[in-house]
Write a structure and sequence with these properties.
Number of helices of chain B: 0
Order of helices and strands of chain B: EEEEEEEEEEEE
Number of strands of chain A: 11
Radius of gyration of chain A: 13 Å
Largest sheet of chain B: 6 strands, mixed
Shape of chain B: globular
Strand content of chain B: over 45%
Oligomer: heterodimer
Helix content of chain B: under 10%
Strand content of chain A: over 45%
Shape of chain A: globular
Structural class of chain A: mainly beta
Largest sheet of chain A: 7 strands, mixed
């Protein structure tokens, strides 16, 4: 298996622009997680899906952030409009179930908003 | 509140020496506990987990962890450290909502 796939690996954009991050989970995994990692705040869970349904989005910072999972093999995290404080590494992870199973992380998308 | 704590920001050890990275937890019920490793510019990689059973869990790359219920700890260990083990290590446990609670991470530095 190719593992969790994320694209793009790097994104540089200007403040105010829309940013879309993409994730393809491991085939057969039912749960998908979006995390953000910064030096200041560490690793934060933004949202997770189970069977394509959003279960907990309490970590989404504000309305500028939205996430979708239209099918079992694809998810997007969108930031509109982007701000410099959104600069971070965004990780997608998948697992067989939300709890009790290990999560497999993608390589991350390094987002820089200028 | 449920939490996972890693009391050391950084652990330094000489190559060939044993290493320990500490983790304590405060979760309700029987805990599931995980260790992950993150190499520079990479995503987290699963190392090992405790669900139930034997208190000593063996994982990838020669790592093991000991579950201690009385001390609410799940320390990561390796008998002989390698320079290539230098990385950021995270302990984690699912809270009662199911989502993983991560410790703040411990940087392991193995010097040759």
């Amino acid at each position: 298996d190719a593992g969790v796939i994320q694209s793009p690996r790097h994104e540089v954009t200007e403040m105010g622009q829309e940013v879309t991050l993409r994730c393809k989970p491991i085939s057969g995994h039912n749960s998908l997680f979006w995390y953000r990692q910064t030096m200041m705040r560490g690793l934060e869970l933004l949202i997770y899906f189970n069977n394509n349904v959003p279960i907990d989005d309490s970590g989404m910072p504000e309305d500028r952030f939205s996430a979708k999972m239209p099918n079992a093999s694809f998810s997007t995290l969108k930031i509109q409009p982007s701000e410099p404080r959104d600069s971070a590494v965004y990780f997608c992870a998948s697992s067989l179930a939300p709890s009790g199973y290990e999560q497999y992380f993608g390589p991350g998308t390094r987002l820089t908003v200028t | 509140a449920q939490s996972v704590a890693q009391p050391e920001d950084q652990v330094n050890v000489a190559e060939g020496n044993p290493l320990t990275v500490k983790c304590t937890y405060s979760v309700s019920g029987n805990p599931y506990l995980f260790w992950y490793v993150q190499y520079p510019n990479r995503g987290l990689q699963f190392l090992l987990k405790y669900i139930t059973g034997d208190n000593l869990v063996k994982g990838s790359y020669g790592f093991e962890a000991e579950f201690n219920k009385s001390q609410t700890s799940f320390h990561l260990k390796k008998p002989s450290a390698l320079v290539s083990d230098s990385a950021l290590y995270f302990c984690a446990s699912p809270g009662n909502t199911g989502k993983l609670i991560f410790g703040q991470g411990t940087t392991l530095q193995v010097k040759p």
